[in-house]
Design a protein that fits this description.
The chain has eight helices and 20 strands. The chain is of the alpha+beta class and 355 residues long. The chain starts with 7 loop residues before the first strand and ends with a strand.
Length: 355
Amino acid sequence: MAASGGGVEFDQVSKRYGAVTAVDRVSFHIAPGELVTLLGPSGCGKTTTLRMVAGLEGASDGHIRIGGVDVTRNAANQRDVSMVFQSYALFPHMTVLENVCYGPLSMNPDVGRARELARNKLQMLGLGGLEDRLPSELSGGQQQRVAVARSLVLEPAVLLFDEPLSNLDAKLRRRVRQEIRELQQSLSLTVLYVTHDQEEALAVSDRIIVMDSGRIAQQGTPHELYEKPANRFLADFIGDANLIDGELVARDGGLWFSAGGASAPVNAPQHQPGPVTLAIRPHRLQPMAGAATSGPNALMGTCKRSAYLGSRHELIVDTPWGELLVFDAEVRHTWNRGDTVALVFAQDAAMVIAR
């Protein structure tokens, strides 16, 4: 296994289709043994970037290096990479074992060796005993693992995933993404992973590269992107966030955020007074019943909607800062339309973003 075999480097890479620039001067580095996710909305350039790593698309400008070797002009079969496609692309008329053997046999006619490699990878992925089944006889999760086995059997330096869980239901998606992460870590695989699902990206990644309109909007660890978004787009795209436009004002020796006639102190040492956007995650707002609660970080409002989701209540609360989404994880109070709600939040819960 070429575990932790080769890193990936993009150096000012662009891809143009006529007058349309799909990827615009993108630079990043994936270290050997690291799982990096390309995340972004549809049309942001993430899949085009992945396909340029695979050699399925040619770069218009810049350089692509795998394991330190410039492969920018190399064909797909000249790059030590393997891809797991969104559709799995399994051959329906071949058994599981034949599907996994296909790659090794195309390079070396040693059938015995190919079958040994294939059985080893199928066993590793918990698919032992399913070798003689057709893809149509497998569940979606099993098909996905066969696709992974077919890629791993080639022992690539870099493994590429293109929206690998999009065809699975929510519970299976959670389980299979854990399996992918555990496999990647146990084998120290170098992985570039593409998804539009923010939760999926947060769950599997060492680092996340968020793309927007063909460029990198921000890159960092899942914690950095969630807790310190660089701009309004990032705050809105990575997880749920309440975004409130207002003013940062100097008061009582500190900085306060003010909007709609209500103010609260915030931690914003890198900002100057002026127009800003405040971002607060719904789970950082603690709803309390009644009008008795007061204090600088208590925002009064009225419950407009409430939904019970088992593990939490989701509230829409009308406040001077607009309608805010609130997650009540306590699930001990029944919220009704018209109830007075005090939203209490820690000073460091509010993220200040420049406008």
